[in-house]
Design goal:
The protein is of the alpha/beta class and 385 residues long. It has two domains: 12-264, 3-Layer(aba) Sandwich (Rossmann fold), CATH 3.40.50.300; 272-365, no CATH class. Helices cover 30% and strands 20% of the residues. The chain contains twelve helices and eleven strands. The chain has helices at 12-22, 78-85, 108-117, 135-145, 155-165, 182-194, 212-229, 240-246, 264-270, 274-281, 288-293, 324-328, and strands spanning 26-41, 47-63, 67-71, 93-98, 101-102, 118-121, 200-204, 232-237, 249-254, 257-263, 346-347. It has a seven-stranded mixed β-sheet with strand order 6-7-8-3-9-10-11, sandwiched between helices. Helix 4 crosses helix 5. It binds adenosine-5'-diphosphate, iron/sulfur cluster and magnesium ion (MG). Residues 273-274, 313, 315-316, 319, 321-322, 326, 331, 349-351 line the site of iron/sulfur cluster. This is ABC transporter ATP-binding protein. Residues 353-385 are annotated as: Disordered. It holds the Pfam family ABC_tran. GO terms for molecular function: ATP binding.
């Protein structure tokens, strides 16, 4: 898929390709992944008084050759998830398998080999590149550790090839980051990510800091490279609109949990989790006739602290469908048995239903929204336009 406008529709060929990809073998399998940051008190004798539950039991898989978009508001644990997958932060619990091999507790040579295969492109091309290093040194730095990829004598040529691959002039090899624009700097970050010929690239909000006009160019470059080098991408964003163009599947995170995951069609056209529906309602719809059916859901209340998340369903303090059950029972991420067709994808909601279909089939038919102010209720406040 290429970026050709916010209202682009997949062609049948693209849709068939997306389905083909969806059947790919898992390259990364993540099970019950947990990352808690301890909260301590005291200076000399540090005492743990709690924990920030940044990632709290997340399971999903990334399939060979696909792009999995990961979306959620700031602070929901996306970057922490990426860092744990990269082994930049140790996991508190759970399992990460790369091609079937457990990697979350590796060290030494095993860790080094995996690090080569899973690379990251960071959000901010202004701060993620060392201003005192030349572009050639930045891109070629990974070769210092993985000398087997490019022996010393071949490095200049290898870096120039990488510059060429990302659409930069190979003669810029001796320039410094400040001599490039934001989009060019992100191309340098991507070239560095490609240097070790990884199989998986985790892109953590790679275009969020760029101008809208430049975002599409960088996304198109990532898509082109994916085909060329058979890459699997995890593409993190805080906004559902950016991810749509590049993703084969999308996972939605809220407060350290994955709340819904499915193919791009399942998520964008048949979302069943209230949080996803609220995020989608905020995505601008260019077609005025479609605008009428997509009234905006305004979420009230703040995102709770991940150090003290709500009991039961973590979204319940902002959910207009919340019931007593949501207070006491954690909803599991699974395909709800009462849904069928494209709605029957994984959703962590006791009352999962497509928008407009509430009360028509979910267990007990408890689709009646709670009035704002009742326990656990926020408010669905449709705004026209
Ligand atoms: N090193 C850390 N120590 C303590 N808390 C952290 C640390 N890194 C992240 N957090 C907290 O974990 C939560 C998730 O953060 P993050 O993964 O950066 O979210 P996102 O990338 O979705 O914005 C936030 O509440 C953040 O403050
Ligand atoms: S209906 Fe209940 S389980 Fe579903 S999202 Fe709302 S609070 Fe969570
Ligand atoms: Mg982040």
């Amino acid at each position: 898929m290429t970026v050709d406008g916010p209202d682009s529709v997949d062609s049948p060929v693209e849709a068939a390709f997306a389905q083909e990809v969806a059947r790919g073998e898992p390259i990364l399998e993540v099970r019950d992944l947990v990352k808690h940051f301890p909260l301590t008190r005291g200076v000399l004798f540090k005492k743990q008084v709690g924990a920030v539950k940044a990632v709290d039991g997340v399971s999903f898989e990334l399939r060979q050759g696909e792009t999995l978009g990961i979306v959620g508001e700031s602070g929901c644990g996306k970057s922490t998830l990426a860092k744990v997958l990269m082994n930049l932060e140790p996991a508190t619990g759970g399992s990460v398998r790369f091609k079937g091999e457990e990697i979350s507790r590796l060290s030494g040579a095993g860790l080094k080999a995996v690090r080569r295969n899973i690379q990251m492109v960071f959000q901010d091309p202004y701060t993620s590149l060392n201003p005192r290093m030349t572009v050639g040194d930045i891109i070629g730095e990974p070769f210092e550790i993985h000398t087997e990829v490019a022996p010393r004598g071949d490095r200049r040529k290898a870096v120039q090839d990488l510059l060429d691959v990302v659409g930069l002039n190979p003669e810029y090899i001796n320039r410094y980051p400040h001599q490039f624009s934001g989009g060019q700097r992100q191309r340098i970050g991507i070239a560095r990510g490609l240097a070790l010929k990884p199989e998986v690239i985790i892109c953590d909000e790679p275009v969020s800091a760029l101008d809208v006009s430049v975002q599409a160019q960088v996304i198109n470059l990532l898509e082109q490279l994916q085909g060329e080098f058979n890459l699997s991408y995890m593409f993190i964003a805080h906004d559902l609109s950016i991810v749509r163009h590049i993703s084969d599947r999308v996972g939605v995170m809220y407060l350290g949990k994955m709340v819904e995951i499915g193919s791009d069609l399942e998520i964008y056209e048949h979302a069943t989790h209230p949080y996803t529906q609220a995020l989608l309602s905020a995505v601008p719809v260019p077609d005025p006739s479609a605008r009428e059916v997509r009234d905006r859901i305004v979420l009230t209340g703040d995102v709770p602290s991940p150090a003290n998340p709500p009991s039961g369903c973590r979204f319940r303090t902002r959910c207009w469908k919340a019931q007593e059950r949501c207070v006491v029972e954690v909803p599991l991420l699974a395909a709800p048995g009462w849904l069928s067709g494209l709605a029957a994808h994984e959703s962590a909601c006791h009352f999962a239903a497509e928008r407009g279909a509430e009360g028509s089939g979910e267990p007990g038919g408890q689709g009646e929204p709670k009035a704002p102010g009742e326990p656990g209720a926020a408010g669905e406040q449709p705004e026209s336009g």
